Amino acid sequence: MTKLTRRFVFRRSADNVESKTKAGRFRHDYLRRHNIVIYYVEQDPFCQPKVDACFKAIIARGDALVASDAARFECLVGPFQSGDTAVANDYHKFFDPKNGIQTLQVTSAVWERAAEIRALFRLQPLDSIHLASAIEHSRSVFLTNDAQLTRCTAITVQVLT
Predict the structure, then answer these.
(1) How large a percentage of the chain has pLDDT more than 70?
(2) pLDDT value, residue 126
């Protein structure tokens, strides 16, 4: 692992974005929402160590870290509102594929699935989009800090504790 900046502690090669579990299924860890990424990038003193340990465990297993364009959207709102270009640049670095994060596009199929998830599980719109992105892009694990998202049974939801 390579220390990229004062905030980033991992680097993945582009050719190692998915791996098989013991059952032979491809496994991917989808980073839910902005909270986990914000904790990591902005180094929240309480949560960042937990997120860092989780990311390292995911990478050690050979699994991929992925997030949707919606996560990038959520992360950049705060720095854009405050005019903090340094933090915005940290997010751009985090989401750079060279740093090991695969970004998933929010396609029309994702929007359709998000509407279904929102209707069935009564989740917030962006939460539904994140879950739908993971499902439509065939990810097997969804990492979050929001236990409410476990109501969605279409994907394994892992709550960061």
Answers:
(1) 79
(2) 92
